[in-house]
Task: inverse folding
């Protein structure tokens, strides 16, 4: 059966604010799913969308798939349980920056460490939307919010860097308005065996409007972001004249043709490099020193937790004589009373 | 001079020594031997929170008590007939458990200046300091004898001396005319790769046995005849293992694969450890990053169609409270095993208590009822776990199985059941879309049981969403006052109706009259023993020991009506009695409570009743 | 034709519209004006969980109810005299709150095909569909009038139309003969940087006022005379702000700096937000990674010497249970504010309920009692928070302040107190080593209150360790059965003895007789109104409304003895009544419960009593 | 007043197993404190030792300082509260791999992100000691333990890498038996303003004996570990003939004098490099490809949370007219009834 985006729309009214970036992500995912279904041979009933609590976490209600709107911060754990219980499911975790990096930070890094085969979409609007505008672990230093009337005094997490620190195998980044890129990354995430983390830089029109616009505004976007593609040189800019090179053991943003830089000096993106060091640097790139990296930053093959659990089960069962409870109960130290 | 062999009804032996002395193993070998022989037994390990506190100190003392009988024994015994104390600290901290004429076995080598000092003795006569006078004392120089044996079998003295527990065990076998075969077998299997260790252990065991045959202190030996037991295959089982197996049995009987998301915590860890072994039966265990992930992975697994279980103890139960509420509102089957330990907070983790009942009953935000079942003995944990799973699966509710450290670690012989004698479990799986429904309505209920159906991801056309927000029967989020009121009511009523499928409450002893003793959970053995003793003393009481806490059996009220006085015994400040006051305020309840991190003593129960009677 | 001006005792106005329509602001401007004028007021915001659900839909409707009176008003009113409904959805979802002859104000522009459809109307006559016949309907085309005004002041229509709530407000001011000065002032201050917006808002406000003066539908206008109030300086205050301020007051009176570790959650967030503003008074707020860190940072701050506070709502209370146990066993002062919302689980987060009482009383592992205080009105939150902090600091215990969404969001005028009328708070700080002690014994107690002393890090010679393991008075870890029993007892008794320093319970109305109504927390206003109404109806009842839940006031039992029937009213399934059954089982209790996420209606309380009487 | 190690010993009997690595850490810290006290001018009553639950978490009982034996996993949060409440305290968190990386992972990364000025000592024995031998988040793939009878199937965390991912400012590593190095690192940690994380590779003789011995055994230690020192070349080995060089954008272990490598090729350790990329690579070095890095891997200056909170308080107070509650209550919208 061939699906259309319409097949993934539930009958529930979408209740996000008009103009919220979440709408675009919903659209992108609803467009990606038919393609994923076709490529990977998934029927609709194999999808489960799991979330925590937050505006973005309302996501499952809008999907005509199996869905679980969990509790705040625990989506990764719920999703892990589902996937281990039934590895044939395609499990998608929808989560916010508060949900997955504040209260849910631990479950996130453990899911990543285990490399459980789920797809995590992190809606990063750098604010708590649902509770009306408190700072989040990704709010920039000095953010004035309802709980930081004089500005925050803490460094934000960089979700990509955190994922590297937790030994992540897949990390990608997109912008809410880049529907096409988002769609593409969702497909990449689905393809990847292991924990895929896709960060969406998302706008909250109500409580943190324009938080990403310094890089995402249409006029500057091409110059302030770079879409990385595996095997391709790290070139960006409206005029494709900017790039990244290696400077000692660090990265450097350069202009091709300036200071004797040629196209050949430009680094080629290797998303499949095992070492986390370079991917870490790519994740951490910040405007104005660097363009912000979009696309698939890291994608390396590794054993997945759910597969290994299943394999171990089979292996142990194959070696064992015990086939049922009656066998088991009678094995080992027993005695008979006559 | 041949010893006289005297028949005794039952005997209590307490093995104590340093955490490194292997007392847990020694005790269980003795218990197994007695069980194989046909005695009834009950055991109770009593160990410290430290792994290996400094050798010879009071905080390092570990104990294991075995009660063996020629008829049924229900408790590990209040006081002991024989105390094995491998060092002065063990003697000092266990002297309070001696019966007036108990036998004491010590390794006299350890009663040197250093050993006495470590145990905090002030003089060089530990016995005098402890005012031990009337007891039989068997005091071989075990350490030096063992060291000598090591030299003989060609082992270095350090490894050799680790076997000294076998010496004490040998003495005990002699004292009770027991066979050493089981222990010999065990040793041969355990050290199969190290013949020297086999030789050493066997030698020391026999040395102990032979020593006992020659020493003057032993005038007579005893025999505890086998008890009359139903024919069948038996094994020893402790409560934690029984829980694990009961859940596995429920998985087999329901066809739902078993999933356990958990986090280690004393004294519940053994359940997770046991489940992890049984991958051959398809058991999946996931040791999570914390207790919250433990329950949340289980909730995910439950949604995905597993018999989902999470295991913990007190502090972990607290941590799971929020997510347990999610399981309640999402109406998903889940078994939460809580093996109680001394609280509050970290409390006294290796000691037993019944102080989590309130938390189990009430410890969640909002109107959030769960079913609660309490096992009453180590082997009953099997059945209790099986039925906890059955009710969870068939009624689509979380069930708390409220065990206790005393049950989890304690063991007793168990007649292995045949799985065909257990009922099948039929979860209300949804297979296809109802006629006339545009989509699957997840909270449409069975009119009789109020149970909703379970539609597993992967089933075509049953796509639906559940979650923590209040919903209507169709599964749409709703904050309508009447929807909320109705759902709150239905979630509670659904649990209440489980009462229709549980057995009626039994009363032991008098069926009506002046006094009804009420209790629940792991105090069963002590209550039962107290009831028999009272009966022997011609004091007539009934005993209603509850396994089902929520819902209570349907005949509870009717039972209470038949007695003039109701007295509720608990190892807490009165959680169950207050619950009864809320459920049946028409009765007047008395209560007897103990909060010492220790089980009841039969004598105190008897005394409490005597006080009421006189 | 000049309108007649009619005196009315009190009036209830309900402002409703889309989440983006500014109904919360409109309502509070109206309330402030009435309060400034001298009316007594009570307000109740009622908003959806969504931030901005699709415009015009039922799920996007936000409401704000104001009750103003010429004498004391205790509730926001059961039903309304005036309903402002800015769109068809608002009308539809609020029609159930109309009094029989209520006035309805609508923006008729929104009742077009699109608007009606979005609200799920099937015909083009919304009023007929809703069976609204007997009401006065004022239906100006507000949107188009506002758009015209925008053109006049030179604003784009889109920004202009955002002011349309002012039109409705203007009508209301005319209808009740109220001054617009306060609102004009507010507008001028708020938009000080944008003169066009000031002009626009003022114009629309006055347009509304003038429109009302000409429209036929308004035959008469009304006046609610100022109520007699004690002289003093007043302000409007809601319960969440009052909690924040009460805690700050306690900090000032104790000399202990205020620390709040918290995590945002509806409806408690405003407390954290308010505290975050007051850095000038030394308040430290730490927005943590989760609720567990919220309470744990507070426990750390408490150990370090702060007045430590953590704030949350239901699911957060569940998460804090384990750490709350740590505060109990470490005997550290801590105020945990829980603003209750509809449960279980995420439940219905923006609705009010009293369903966390059980969790507050019992929701921890082990024997783990905490003190509990429940505020009874928005302004009472100040005092309740102050005393919660006082008891916590002086008795070295965690205190749960059990507020409710209804109180937290609701507001009323408050006579600003003078801090000199509040008592000083004296925490039992340890300053130096006791004579004859080799080191500081952290759990040595005051023999009378059983309170331990608080030795702050930084104080020389008082180095000591606390923690979650059971300890003896010296502070050494102990698993001794008797130490445990004694500490369990002392921790409970220490809380019980707080009863000696709290005021005796008052009874309102009859002091003895047939019926005692019992209640607690945020239902106070409704209970009080019911009591007056019953009195007016010549039905004699007493009302005991409890602020102190644990411990209960010392005279509680004595009060209960004076009445034949006791009936307990709660917005839950009966948590308090069951607690009373456990505390005073000698009495028989009736109960009245409602679990709809909504406050009581005075009429239902009256009816419940009438049923008992007849 | 000058202190001796004895001054920091409490009267409580030390109850760890004989041979447990924890004893050595206790000794090292008791030796470091007099020095720290002298250098930083701390009196004894300013120290607070905070812990979670685990064998290692019994630490505070053995110190004659203020101490808090908390609950499992929450030490970082408790310590954070203490430090914010009273920034003059010297707060030390003692924690295990289970305590801080399993249940406590989130508090750890958030403490690090905020850069709160506490010193965290992480006893990494790759096992749950106190509960008698279950695997931990640092247990190596395939570990056979009480809860993994057939071997674990999950990747361990690398605490250093995780700390980099959380934007850590100080990370150091030592071995339990290297008493002298441990002492030195404790002093470094105390000197550092911000969150200092010191990982101690610790042996649990009972449940995970020799887990580190492949690198820590006396005979091989010099060749399989490298002690990094800021500003010094990354040279190691019994014969000081081994070193690390840059190979493209990655590190490489080499032998000086072989393949034309000279001393000058060897990288110089810059613990103060802002970028996390290189430190990440150093943290992740594993035997046999690399020596395991000991010493201070990262130490960069940054604003601390506790300082900033204090500064903001002063700043706001200086600007405000409000001096007491009576002022505050009467400010804003009020009216008078006469
Ligand atoms: C246990 C618990 N704590 C707190 C909350 C309140 N809460 C709900 S969503 C949220 C944060 C949402 O932020 P984010 O995850 O970034 O989602 P967004 O709304 O921005 O999409 C909070 C604090 C809750 N529902 N449950
Ligand atoms: C909430 C809670 N969950 C679980 C436990 C049980 N527990 C105590 S310590 C521990 C793990 C200890 O491991 P680690 O932190 O590595 O310390 P170690 O004993 O190895 O030093 C666990 C699981 C507990 N005390 N509290
Ligand atoms: S509040 Fe912000 S994040 Fe939430 S729905 Fe509205 S725009 Fe989106
Ligand atoms: S169990 Fe291991 S970690 Fe714990 S004290 Fe013993 S050796 Fe140390
Ligand atoms: Mg967000
Ligand atoms: Mg460990």
Result:
């Amino acid at each position: 059966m061939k699906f259309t985006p319409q097949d993934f729309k539930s009958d529930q009214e979408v209740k996000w604010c008009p103009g919220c970036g979440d709408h675009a992500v919903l659209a992108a995912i609803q467009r990606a799913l038919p393609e994923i279904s076709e490529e990977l041979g998934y029927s609709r009933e194999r999808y489960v969308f799991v979330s925590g609590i937050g505006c973005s976490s309302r996501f499952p209600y809008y999907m005509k798939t199996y869905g679980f709107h969990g509790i705040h911060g625990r989506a990764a754990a719920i999703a892990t349980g589902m996937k281990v219980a039934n590895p044939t499911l395609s499990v998608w975790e929808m989560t916010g920056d508060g949900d997955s990096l504040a209260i849910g930070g631990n479950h996130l890094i453990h899911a990543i460490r285990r490399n459980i085969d789920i797809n995590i979409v992190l809606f990063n609007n750098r604010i708590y939307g649902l509770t009306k505008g408190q700072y989040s672990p990704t709010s920039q230093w000095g953010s004035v919010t309802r709980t930081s009337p004089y500005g925050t005094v803490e460094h934000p997490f960089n979700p990509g860097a955190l994922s590297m620190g937790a030994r992540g195998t897949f990390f990608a980044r997109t912008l809410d308005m880049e529907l096409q890129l988002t769609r593409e990354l969702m497909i990449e995430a689905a393809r990847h065996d292991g924990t895929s983390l896709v960060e969406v830089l998302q706008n909250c029109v109500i409580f943190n409007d324009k938080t990403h616009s310094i890089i995402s505004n249409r006029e500057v976007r091409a110059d302030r972001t770079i879409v990385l593609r595996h095997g391709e040189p790290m070139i960006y800019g409206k005029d494709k004249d900017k790039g990244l090179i290696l400077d000692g053991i660090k990265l450097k943003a350069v202009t091709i043709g300036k200071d004797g830089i040629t196209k050949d000096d430009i680094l080629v993106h290797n998303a499949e490099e095992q070492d986390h060091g370079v991917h870490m640097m790519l994740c951490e790139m910040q405007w104005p020193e660097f363009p912000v990296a979009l696309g698939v930053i890291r994608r390396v093959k590794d054993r997945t937790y759910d597969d290994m659990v299943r394999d171990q089960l089979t292996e142990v069962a194959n070696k064992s004589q015990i086939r049922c409870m009656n066998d088991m109960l009678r094995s080992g130290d027993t005695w008979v009373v006559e | 001079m041949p010893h006289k062999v005297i028949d005794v009804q039952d005997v209590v032996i307490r093995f104590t020594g340093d955490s490194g002395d292997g007392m847990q193993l020694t005790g269980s070998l003795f218990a197994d031997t007695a069980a194989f022989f046909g005695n009834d037994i009950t055991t109770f390990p009593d160990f410290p929170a430290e792994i290996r506190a400094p050798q010879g100190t009071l905080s390092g003392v570990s104990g294991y008590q075995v009660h063996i009988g020629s008829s049924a024994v229900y408790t590990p015994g209040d006081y002991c007939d024989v105390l094995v104390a491998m060092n002065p600290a063990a003697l000092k901290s266990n002297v309070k458990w001696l019966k007036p004429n108990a036998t004491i076995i010590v390794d006299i080598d350890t009663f040197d200046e250093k050993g006495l000092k470590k145990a905090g003795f002030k003089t060089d006569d530990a016995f005098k300091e402890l005012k031990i006078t009337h007891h039989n004392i068997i005091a071989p120089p075990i350490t030096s004898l063992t060291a000598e044996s090591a030299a003989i079998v060609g082992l270095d003295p350090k490894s050799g001396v680790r076997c000294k527990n076998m010496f004490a065990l040998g003495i005990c076998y002699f004292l009770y005319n027991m066979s050493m075969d089981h222990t010999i077998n065990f040793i041969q299997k355990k050290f199969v790769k190290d013949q020297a260790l086999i030789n050493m252990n066997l030698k020391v065991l026999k040395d102990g046995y032979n020593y006992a045959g020659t020493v003057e202190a032993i005038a007579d030996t005893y025999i505890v005849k086998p008890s009359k037991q139903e024919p069948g295959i038996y094994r020893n089982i402790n409560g934690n293992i029984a829980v694990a197996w009961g859940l596995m049995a429920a998985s087999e009987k329901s066809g739902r694969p078993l999933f356990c998301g958990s986090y280690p915590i004393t004294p519940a860890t053994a359940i997770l450890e046991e489940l992890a072994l049984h991958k051959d039966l398809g058991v999946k265990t996931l040791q999570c990053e914390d207790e919250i992930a433990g329950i949340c992975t289980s909730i995910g697994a439950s949604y995905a169609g597993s018999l989902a279980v999470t295991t913990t103890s007190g502090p972990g139960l607290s941590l799971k409270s929020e997510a347990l509420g999610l399981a309640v509102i999402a109406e998903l089957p889940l078994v939460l095993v809580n093996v109680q330990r001394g609280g509050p907070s970290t409390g006294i983790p290796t000691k037993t208590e019944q102080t989590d009942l309130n938390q189990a009953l009430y410890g969640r935000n909002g109107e959030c009822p769960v079913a609660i079942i309490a096992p009453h003995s180590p082997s009953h944990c099997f059945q209790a776990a099986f039925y906890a799973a059955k009710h969870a699966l068939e009624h689509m509710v979380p069930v708390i199985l409220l065990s206790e450290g005393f049950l989890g670690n304690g063991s007793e012989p168990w007649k292995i059941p045949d799985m065909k004698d257990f009922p099948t479990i039929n979860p209300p799986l949804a297979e296809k879309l109802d006629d006339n429904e545009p989509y699957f309505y997840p909270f449409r209920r069975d009119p009789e049981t109020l149970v909703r159906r379970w539609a597993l991801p992967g089933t075509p056309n049953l796509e639906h969403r559940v979650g923590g927000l209040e919903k209507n029967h169709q599964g749409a989020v709703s904050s309508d006052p009447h929807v909320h009121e109705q759902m709150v009511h239905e979630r509670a009523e659904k649990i209440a109706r489980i009462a229709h499928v549980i057995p009626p409450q039994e009363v032991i002893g008098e069926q009506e009259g002046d006094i009804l003793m009420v209790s629940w959970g792991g105090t069963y053995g002590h209550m039962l023993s107290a009831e028999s003793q009272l009966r022997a003393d011609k004091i007539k009481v009934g005993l209603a020991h509850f396994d089902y806490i929520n819902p209570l059996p349907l005949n509870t009220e009717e039972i209470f009506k038949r007695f003039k006085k109701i007295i509720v015994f608990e190892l807490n400040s009165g959680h169950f009695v207050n619950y009864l006051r809320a459920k049946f305020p028409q009765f007047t309840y008395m209560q007897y409570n103990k909060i010492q991190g220790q089980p009841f003593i039969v004598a105190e129960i008897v005394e409490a009743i005597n006080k009421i009677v006189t």
In short: Residues 5-232+287-305 of chain D form a domain with the Rossmann fold fold (CATH 3.40.50.970).
